Fold this sequence. Notes:
CATH class of the largest domain in chain A: Mainly Alpha
Number of helices of chain A: 10
Order of helices and strands of chain A: HHHHHHHHHH
Number of domains of chain A: 2
Strand content of chain A: under 5%
Shape of chain A: elongated
Oligomer: homodimer
Amino acid sequence: xxxxxxxxxxxxxxxxxxxxLTRQRILDAAAHVFGEMGYAAGTTNRIAERARxxxxxxxxxxxxxxxxxxxxxxxxxDEGRQALERLREETLPGTLAGIFRAHVRIVIxxxxxxxxxxxxxxxxxxxxxxxxxxxxxxxxxxxxxxxELLTRHPDARVRDTHVAARLIVATVELLVHQLxxxxxxxxxxxxxxxxxxxxxxxxxxxxxx
Amino acid sequence: xxxxxxxxxxxxxxxxxxxxLTRQRILDAAAHVFGEMGYAAGTTNRIAERARxxxxxxxxxxxxxxxxxxxxxxxxxDEGRQALERLREETLPGTLAGIFRAHVRIVIxxxxxxxxxxxxxxxxxxxxxxxxxxxxxxxxxxxxxxxELLTRHPDARVRDTHVAARLIVATVELLVHQLxxxxxxxxxxxxxxxxxxxxxxxxxxxxxx
DNA sequence: GGACGACCTGAACAATTGCTCACAATAGTG
DNA sequence: CACTATTGTGAGCAATTGTTCAGGTCGTCC
Lengths: 209, 209
């Protein structure tokens, strides 16, 4: 069923410039509509309407509604992944607090565009879909990174590095989501400071920061 | 529109025992279906089917789908609220860590039944509805409680008590959600210890636990 | 400039959903 | 038993949704 449909919908590479433009307009509109109304209420017709594109065009570029969200998620995760990759190469030495600060800053920056959209991605996303797979794969990568950090860095004092890493990654990600998308959002700079303090004190076993 | 419907649907108090039973069956089924499939895919017909009750009966007890989720949420929040109330009366003295531990334990216990359902409540809940109002009101109560604690308790060392309280409440709530509903959940006892450590070290300014 | 393919259009379809209503079954009362 | 109120039933309606398709418009290249 679904695989047949996918065969009927082999979206091609655009040959003309306007095609790429249309594609981008659809994606922007989808980001806005999903962020504003959530995934369920963000209908494809509404997305097409906001993109000033016919519904037919939308389905020329995306085989179904899920695919739109999937691309949105993929792009977002890739940005985060790249930023973390850069961080990993640049800053080999440094205090734990400094490393965590860079980490936190990346996550905050990565969410600055549209916090509500990201909330949709993490929450309203269809269950058990490829979207969730990608999100959790990305999460596992980050946990692995932090776990290695906790193992290697001399300031780190935790018993179970794996559980601690899971705690830290989840804390940073979830609190940034929650506290920047809240009706009364915490200011970014302060949020960064508090998150760094929290996570660092936890990882250093309550010792000096 | 909606208000007219509500007038047509003044659900009465049940006069016979079987009515209360049916109501409970519907609620249990809804909890299961929502937890399993999410809010959008958890259709009223599916709920009725699982409750072994006709769809008509379901609508005799709940005016619409939202009302079912609302009751589920209300009950859950009330349980948490009552538990916190009891805590507040019992334990006036104690170390910060001890108080936080009691707090964390309540949240974990409150989620033990069906972690996935709670995820639905917090996430898939219809946007800008009464459900969200209740959730955020409960959250504000907890923030106020923690804020007062941070102000009064001698061990607490934080600059901005309000922001710190928001961080702490959000951390406990979100991490319990995330790490008990994950595919590879963290064991409850360990989660409690780690959360208490994290929050306490944060609140005491990195000093001794 | 004509012709072919890339691109775009939007009315309409099939499927699904929340929900209603006319009726049936059951419990309580005398 | 008969009568009424309470509770239960489920086919089907109205509305909405994701998606398709027959046919247009536009760009590009000979």
